[in-house]
Amino acid sequence: MRVLIACEFSGIVREAFRAKGHDAWSCDLLPTEIPGQHIQGDVLEVLNDGWDLMIAHPPCTWLCQAMRTNAARKDRPKISENFINERQKAFEFVVSLYDAPITKIAVENPIGYLNSAWRKPDQVLRAWHFGHPYKKDICLWLKNLPKLTHTCVPEGWLFGGQEYPTNLKTLDFWSNKRNQDGKSLKSKTFSGIANAMADQWGEQT
Q1: Please, where are the H alpha helices in the chain?
Q2: Of 36, 90, 129, 168, which has the fewest CB atoms closer than 10 Å, so is most exposed?
Q3: Whether pTM exceeds 0.90
Q4: What ranges make up the beta strands (E) of 99-168?
Q5: Helix, strand, or coil (residue 140)
């Protein structure tokens, strides 16, 4: 398959698909962190290049729940016209990716504006279902793709039938206050989820 990983600079998802023998390319405005097949530029300019599958990770800066919550806090300025404009541009970018002329598409984003302004996600992934003991919900909007099957829930992570294990780690290390590169770390896909995408979606015909 020809696979486009849109808005990815880390190379994690791209390399998961390449390891399975697919012709996978990442595309981002930033250079790739892992040397390989990477298009540095505007992904909208390559959507018509004959891809079989696209997995898109559009920036969530203006779409995530945290941005809206912060903008609405009493100790901060009210939601501004600039906020609304930037959010609308981000929303339109997501829709343009989902409407691309590619048969199979997955769009990934956290819980936020898309859930109410667009539609509910087809699936909500939890990192710990794929071998990573962290608190993080990941929404997927799917086109002609099945939901991902959980791959790894290690023994001892579930307690008393709770939906969330009690020993999951928080993602404080992603905070820019604690880590200068927090924003970049936050945008990277967990390797367990990337491998599940390659294993399960790479077999779709």
Answers
A1: 12-18, 65-72, 81-98, 113-117, 182-186, 191-201
A2: 36
A3: no
A4: 104-109, 123-126, 137-143
A5: strand
